[in-house]
Amino acid sequence: MSRRYKDPFDLFDEMIREIEEEFERFEREFMRLGGEGEVKTFGPYVYGFRVTIGPDGKPIVEEFGNIKNYKGKPMITEEREPLVDVIEKGDEIRVIAEVPGVDKNSIKVKITDGGKTLIIRAEGGDRKYYKEIELPTQADENSAKATYNNGVLQIILKKAKSKENEGKEIKVE
């Protein structure tokens, strides 16, 4: 059943109410588990989300951070999931990831699965990042270039012409 909204902002108000309720459930669960001594601490708890509108006009909520929902319960992981944008334009795929607080030499970027998956792993101080990104189309691993500046990692890939790729690590400059 589809709801009708008089004002387009009513949809966002409803989404914000649902997100606030989810945060309250997470907080109650943390407090309950904290009393039982089951919560591990990995430094600060990081949780964020971004709302965008998809090509079909429906909102897309993307979460990032080190708090995951596991079978209805919050789970804190040591690795943070960075906020990532994947932009496909012409014959190129551009991946932009926020990985602040790490040295560029500790960032490992790898293309796997025949150019279909990009893996980002970084570690520095008390921060660890990990993200597997399914690319919108197969990428040519030999064309990959990665740069890191002011906490932002940018990877530029050309779309693949053949399907015979094994996987290759990309040097971050």
TrEMBL record:
Keywords annotated in UniProt: Coiled coil
Coiled-coil regions listed in the entry: 9-36
Signal peptide: none
Domain SHSP: 74-173
Presence of keyword Disulfide bond: no
This protein's record includes keyword Coiled coil: yes
Ranges for domain CS: 79-173
Domain of life: Archaea
Family that this chain belongs to: Belongs to the small heat shock protein (HSP20) family.
Protein's name according to its UniProt entry: Hsp20 family protein
